[in-house]
Amino acid sequence: MVTINQLSEMVVDIVGVKLEIKHVPGPPGVGGRNSDNRLIMEKFGCKPNMPLREGLKITINGLKKRLKGIYVYRLYRFFIFRIHYINSFYKLFKKLKKRCYPV
Question: Which of 15, 64, 73, 88 is the most buried (most CB within 10 A)?
């Protein structure tokens, strides 16, 4: 069984950030949750094949790659827009210059 605090510590460790995990007491209830994997086996015909920590590493690294891709794409779009804007301004400036100062 894994508590929410333990899960939080795992995620913080895998991500590699320094965060203070502050426990906020909640309403009284179940001390933890257990996963009964027999139901997964019955319904889907599969079972977990790796520990929780390894699965979290794969998931977090996949999310990091996707977020990095989104960031790079947005940065690319930002610069392409700026280059297009500058180019359009330059063409407009050349037209205005010809009208104002014919050669």
Answer: 15
